[in-house]
Amino acid sequence: MTQVTGNSDPRIAEAIRRATELDSKGQTELAVQQLTQLTTEFPGVASIHGYLALFLCRSGRFNDAIAHGREATLLAPKSEKASLVFFRMLWKAGQR
What we know:
Elements: H1 10-24, H2 28-41, H3 46-58, H4 62-75, H5 80-92
Helix pairs in contact: 1-2, 2-3, 3-4, 3-5, 4-5
């Protein structure tokens, strides 16, 4: 059974907020590092994988982005947002 797909734990919501802020300041690699660490503590949370996929894509790390995008869709198969993020990773990597 997977964990909650959203941000119910305050640490998750705060980490995603910080990562988004870092990304907006051009510190995308630092955002990637923080969310990568968070996936070890919360491996079953789709939102972490989805945001990590987005930031990895922005860093040009398409294979890693696709892997985390895929994980987000597996953890939250009914999530339109997870599916859209995964589609975006595939598209940017030229895997149509």
